[in-house]
């Protein structure tokens, strides 16, 4: 009975530790726990098996074993006592601090193992260190003698907590202080705000009846305002439209300035008040009554300010002015932006190096157009021009105008005049011959000389990444023109790296170019026909392939059968071999892969360097190189001494 | 346990055997003590440990960082983790910062055997310091010709106060605390002396083990060594067989016939004139019946073959005389442990189970009460062997690096070990009354599912 059960935990543990996953299968773990929980002998056996597994020369196995050990360690006292006896061995095998017994191969897993082991040791020490001297010793040794860095989880957590508490305390203190200040200054603040509000009201009163001449009641009576707000607003808008320019230059400018100032102050007050309200909401006091009263008052004040502000804004004049100022600022900034925009637009805007032509169509055709640049330039021009926006012809021409790089020829753009050769009045002293002051270079010649050469610039094409799905969940970032060396031809793929259906986009490229509807339709028709053809062809091909595959499979099967038969005939272990054959052929390949991976983890990954080395350092290649070299030497020699053979 | 107490109560068990039984059962349950922590102040490997011989309370340790420290093993200085653990911090430590402290590793530290007022440290800086415990000042300083490997003071001495020092030098020197000078220089070893040990049966007999593999016995009252142990000379069983012994007595007393004996007798003649205390010595060692054969072997100008005899291949790294002084345990760099009969000088051929021991530095062995067990540092573990069968009976694993020394306190049945990992560990029998109120969190099963 016990043997049987013993087998159970052994099988469970062994199956749990031969996976290549970074975690133990939770179901298996649960099973192990439940088996071990009810039987001490099972637990002892498990401890022994786990210690044996820790000795395996494979970090992955050790890693998984360590995870299981931790699970049991945190739960069972008996397991703890068993493990603790050999803790130094366990640590040697999991941390690998001894030089002569470092961790076994898969290096990345080994580092994970070490990290985990150290983490576990810290955990064990904090929870069971009191009861087990060995744990304390091991921890102390790794920490103080070997100076391993422990993650110090607990300590960091407590430290963070403490810091947070400290911060909270500080903020509370600050809030309290603020509250005290507020208590002291409340009256003055209130007064100040009230005075500002009053002044604004006065200013508005001064301004309003004069400029608008609307026979409305004074504005500071709020109920009236609300009552008539709609009509009032309408009227105000109208008034604004016709009368804006009027108060810009009117004699009541002083009042407006004051109003603007006051408005600014008011805005400041508003933010201050809002801050105070926040403080009041946040502050924690033993006595909440005073706070509540303050809060109420502040809310009242805020509402008051807001209403006054609204009034100001609705009165319009001052706000619009401010807004205009701001707009000017923005405009300034915008100009800077456009100048910084691109390399080409800089000379265009600033130096005026861009020549705008509306006539020469040839140039327009030859120079590649760049839409965004053009529009950029347009923007700049429109800003510069200001009022010229209204000229429709000009803007149209501008839209059409090509861009030409700046050069000398722009100076004589479109001129059909001959140029005087010596028009600068040079005295050619040492020239003995006759100097013709009127020598003329004909216009054709000039044109010829000024012929502008444009260098063909390749359009910057962004090479699409391969985007084939990788094992780590990302997509392949390689950028190859057509074929990725790892994943074959580059094809459009979605975010997960699944290939999109390749055909439609390929075909749809064509109609993009065409602008004519008829053309498009005909193309479509042609396409449809072609697609059908293609589909047919594909189907045929698939059929053919399937046939071929079937044939190949048949051949392979036959081969295997023959091999098996021969094996059976030749050896006495034939049955065994035959059984070995069976799964490899009949079972799904994933099973085989899985079995292999644990061993394959140990194998070194093939790097490009290896591949190159294999290619370059193989005997044939090196022999060829040697041969080539000797040939070269031979040739040299023969050249040097042609008379010898 | 309770039955034994009942027997003792009823008088069925004699007090002595009761005591011994209790002690041996306690020794058998030695384990790493969870409730006693010695906080080691050392920053180098602990080379030597000794509990004081008068009270069995103060543990003296010497370490490679040139420091020595004293701990009170009975009373802790503070309590950790909810009172479950008693911490023993050192009462004081002397290190390089001390004005007369050692410069290099302290290889040996021993208590003055009479009281705890003095202790002696030997160091690789060629000095032996004698310290006053209370003032922690150096009261005496001996300059040695080489690195000091081991110092020893006789626990029985009543008529001398000599510190025996084994050094790199071939000569063993005896430093006299009373006069502050070298009293003797014992020459005979052909290489440095790794270990020295005073006999526990005679205050004048000194045993030394050298790097040349020889174990020599010296009587400090006379020149030269009187015995070199030879590993090829062996006897079966604890004692030499009676028959053979009687035969040799007969042979030596009746007719000294063989030529070798005659030559030795000749050579012995001038020696006898010089030494007058041989008779006294014999009585001290307690072998008056075999006087004749003894004399033959006592010959100082021994045959060269005898003089060249080795006890181990390689160096002798550790020596320990049993409590009763009848047997000597030696450890060598050949990773062997040998048990010698002091009286006959024969290897008793006890086969201690294969062990691996440190080969390059002296190790300190310990024996238990009544010579039942011998504690031997074997690389990172300490093993307890049965003295007479050589079987491993206990294994103490706790150190993370090599163990250099151990000391057994027969009073408390506790074992102290010190190693290269700078730790001093206490191994003690489990507490009879396990304190269940173990601090904040109990140690118990915690199954979540």
Automatic annotation (TrEMBL), chain A:
Major place of residence: nucleus
Molecular function as annotated in GO? RNA polymerase II complex binding; zinc ion binding
Tell me the protein family, please.
Answer: Belongs to the UVSSA family.
- Give residue ranges for domain UV-stimulated scaffold protein A C-terminal: 400-502
PANTHER family linked to this entry: UV-STIMULATED SCAFFOLD PROTEIN A
Native source organism of the sequence: Pyrus ussuriensis x Pyrus communis
Where does this protein have compositionally biased stretches of type Basic and acidic residues? Answer: 369-384
User: Which InterPro entries does the annotation name?
Assistant: ENTH_VHS, UVSSA, UVSSA_C, UVSSA_N_a-solenoid_rpt
Disordered: annotated segments: 360-394, 491-512
Q: What is this protein called?
A: UV-stimulated scaffold protein A-like protein
Keywords for this entry? Chromosome, Coiled coil, DNA damage, DNA repair, Metal-binding, Zinc, Zinc-finger
Q: Which GO terms describe its cellular component?
A: chromosome
Q: Name one GO biological process term.
A: response to UV
Automatic annotation (TrEMBL), chain B:
Q: Which domain of life is it from?
A: Eukaryota
- Point to the regions of Basic and acidic residues compositional bias: 439-449
Q: Name one GO biological process term.
A: protein polyubiquitination
> Would you tell me the protein name for this molecule?
DNA excision repair protein ERCC-8-like
Entry keyword annotation includes Cytoplasm: no
Q: Which SUPFAM superfamilies match?
A: WD40 repeat-like (SSF50978)
Q: Does the keyword DNA damage apply?
A: yes
Q: Which InterPro entries match?
A: Rad28/ERCC8/Ckn1/ATCSA-1, WD40/YVTN_repeat-like_dom_sf, WD40_PAC1, WD40_repeat_CS, WD40_repeat_dom_sf, WD40_rpt
Q: Which UniProt keywords apply?
A: DNA damage, DNA repair, Repeat, WD repeat
Q: Where is this region: Disordered?
A: 249-292, 430-449
Compositionally skewed regions (Polar residues) per UniProt: 249-265
- Entries under PANTHER family matching the protein: DNA EXCISION REPAIR PROTEIN ERCC-8
Q: Name one GO cellular component term.
A: Cul4A-RING E3 ubiquitin ligase complex
Tell me the Pfam families matching this sequence: WD40
WD repeats by residue range: 99-141, 186-228, 309-350, 396-428
């Amino acid at each position: 009975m016990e043997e049987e059960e013993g087998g159970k935990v052994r099988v469970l543990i062994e199956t749990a530790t031969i996976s290549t996953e970074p975690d133990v299968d939770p179901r298996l773990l649960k099973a192990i726990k439940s088996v071990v929980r009810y039987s001490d002998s099972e637990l002892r056996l498990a401890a022994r098996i786990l210690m044996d597994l820790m000795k395996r020369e494979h970090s992955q196995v050790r890693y998984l074993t360590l995870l299981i050990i931790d699970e049991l360690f945190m739960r069972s006292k008996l397991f703890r006592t068993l493990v603790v006896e050999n803790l130094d061995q366990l640590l040697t095998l999991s941390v690998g601090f001894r030089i002569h017994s470092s961790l076994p191969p898969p290096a990345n897993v080994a580092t994970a193992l070490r990290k985990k082991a150290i983490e576990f040791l810290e955990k064990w020490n904090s929870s069971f260190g009191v009861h087990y001297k060995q744990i304390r010793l091991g921890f102390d040794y790794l920490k103080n003698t070997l100076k391993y860095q422990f993650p110090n989880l607990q300590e960091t957590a407590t430290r963070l907590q403490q810091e947070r508490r400290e911060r909270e305390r500080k903020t509370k203190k600050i809030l309290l202080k603020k509250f005290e200040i507020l208590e002291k200054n409340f009256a003055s603040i209130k007064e100040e705000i009230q005075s500002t509000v009053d002044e604004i009201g006065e200013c508005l009163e001064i301004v309003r009846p004069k400029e608008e001449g609307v026979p409305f009641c004074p504005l500071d009576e709020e109920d009236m305002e609300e009552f008539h707000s709609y009509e009032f607003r309408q009227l105000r808008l109208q008034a604004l439209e016709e009368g804006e320019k009027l108060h810009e230059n009117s004699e009541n400018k002083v009042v407006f300035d004051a109003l603007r100032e006051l408005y600014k102050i008011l805005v400041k007050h508003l933010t201050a008040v809002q801050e105070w309200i926040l403080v009041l909401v946040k502050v924690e006091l033993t006595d909440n009554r005073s706070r509540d009263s303050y809060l109420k008052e502040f809310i009242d004040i805020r509402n008051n300010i807001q209403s006054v502000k609204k009034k100001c804004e609705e009165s319009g004049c001052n706000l619009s002015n401010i807004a205009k100022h701001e707009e000017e600022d923005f405009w300034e900034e915008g100009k800077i932006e456009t100048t910084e925009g691109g390399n080409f637009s800089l000379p265009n805007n600033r130096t005026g190096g861009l020549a705008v032509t509306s006539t020469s169509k040839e140039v327009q055709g030859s120079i590649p157009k760049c839409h965004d640049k053009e529009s950029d330039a347009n923007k700049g021009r429109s800003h510069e021009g200001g009022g010229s926006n209204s000229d429709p012809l000009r803007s149209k021409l501008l839209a059409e105008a090509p861009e030409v790089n700046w050069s000398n020829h722009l100076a004589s753009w479109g001129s059909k005049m001959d140029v005087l050769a010596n028009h600068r009045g040079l005295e050619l002293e040492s020239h003995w011959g006759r100097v013709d002051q009127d020598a003329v270079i004909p216009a054709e010649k000039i044109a010829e000389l000024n012929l502008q050469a444009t260098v063909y610039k390749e359009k910057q094409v962004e090479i699409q990444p391969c985007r084939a799905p990788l094992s780590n969940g990302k997509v392949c970032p390689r950028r190859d023109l057509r074929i990725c060396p790892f994943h074959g031809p580059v094809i459009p793929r979605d975010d997960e790296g699944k290939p999109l259906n390749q055909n439609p986009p390929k075909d749809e490229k064509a109609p993009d170019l065409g602008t004519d509807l008829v053309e498009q339709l005909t193309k479509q028709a042609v396409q449809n026909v072609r697609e059908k053809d293609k589909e047919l062809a594909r189907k045929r091909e698939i059929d053919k392939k399937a046939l071929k595959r079937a044939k190949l499979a048949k051949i392979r099967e036959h081969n295997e059968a023959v091999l098996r038969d021969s094996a059976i005939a030749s050896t006495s272990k034939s049955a065994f071999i035959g059984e070995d054959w069976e799964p490899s052929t009949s079972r799904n390949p994933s099973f085989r892969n899985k079995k292999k991976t644990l061993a394959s983890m140990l194998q070194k990954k093939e790097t490009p360097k290896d591949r190159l080395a294999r290619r370059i350092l193989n005997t044939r290649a090196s022999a060829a190189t040697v041969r080539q070299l000797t040939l070269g030497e031979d040739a040299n020699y023969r050249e040097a001494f042609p008379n010898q053979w | 346990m309770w039955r034994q107490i009942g027997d003792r109560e009823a008088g069925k068990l004699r007090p002595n055997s009761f005591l011994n039984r209790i002690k041996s059962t306690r020794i058998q349950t030695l384990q790493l003590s969870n409730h006693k922590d010695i906080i080691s102040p050392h920053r180098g490997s602990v080379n030597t440990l000794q509990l004081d011989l008068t009270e069995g309370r103060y543990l003296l340790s010497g370490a490679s960082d040139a420091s020595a420290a004293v701990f009170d093993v009975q009373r802790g200085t503070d309590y950790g983790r909810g009172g479950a653990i008693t911490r023993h911090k050192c009462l004081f430590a002397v290190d390089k910062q001390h004005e007369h402290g050692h410069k290099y590793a302290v290889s040996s530290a021993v208590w003055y055997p009479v009281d705890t007022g003095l202790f002696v440290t030997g160091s690789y800086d060629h000095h032996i310091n004698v310290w006053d415990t209370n003032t922690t000042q150096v009261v005496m300083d001996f300059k040695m010709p080489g690195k000091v490997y081991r110092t020893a003071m006789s626990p029985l001495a009543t008529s001398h106060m000599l510190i025996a020092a084994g050094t790199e030098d071939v000569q063993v020197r005896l430093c006299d605390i009373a006069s502050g000078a070298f009293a003797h220089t014992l020459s005979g070893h052909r290489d440095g002396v790794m270990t020295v040990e005073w006999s526990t049966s005679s205050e004048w007999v000194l045993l030394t083990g050298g790097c040349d593999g020889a174990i020599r016995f010296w009587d400090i009252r006379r020149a030269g060594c009187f015995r070199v142990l030879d590993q090829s000379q062996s006897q079966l069983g604890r004692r030499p067989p009676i028959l053979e012994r009687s035969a040799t007595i007969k042979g030596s007393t009746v007719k000294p016939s063989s030529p070798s004996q005659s030559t030795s007798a000749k050579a012995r003649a001038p020696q006898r004139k010089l030494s007058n205390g041989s008779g006294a010595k014999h009585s001290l060692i307690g072998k008056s019946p075999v006087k004749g054969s003894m004399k033959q072997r006592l010959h100082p100008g021994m045959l060269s073959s005898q003089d060249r005899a080795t006890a181990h291949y390689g160096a002798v790294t550790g020596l320990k005389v049993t409590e009763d002084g009848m047997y000597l345990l030696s450890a060598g760099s050949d990773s062997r442990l040998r048990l010698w009969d002091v009286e006959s000088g024969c290897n008793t051929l006890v086969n201690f189970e294969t062990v691996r021991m440190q080969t390059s530095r002296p190790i300190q062995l310990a024996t238990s009460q009544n010579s039942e067990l011998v504690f031997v540092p074997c690389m990172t573990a300490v093993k307890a062997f049965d003295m007479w069968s050589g079987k491993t009976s206990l294994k103490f694993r706790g150190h993370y690096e090599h163990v250099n020394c151990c000391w057994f306190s027969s009073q408390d049945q506790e074992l102290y070990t010190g190693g290269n990992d700078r730790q001093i560990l206490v191994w003690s029998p489990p507490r009879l009354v396990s304190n269940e109120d173990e601090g904040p969190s109990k140690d118990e099963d915690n199954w979540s599912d």
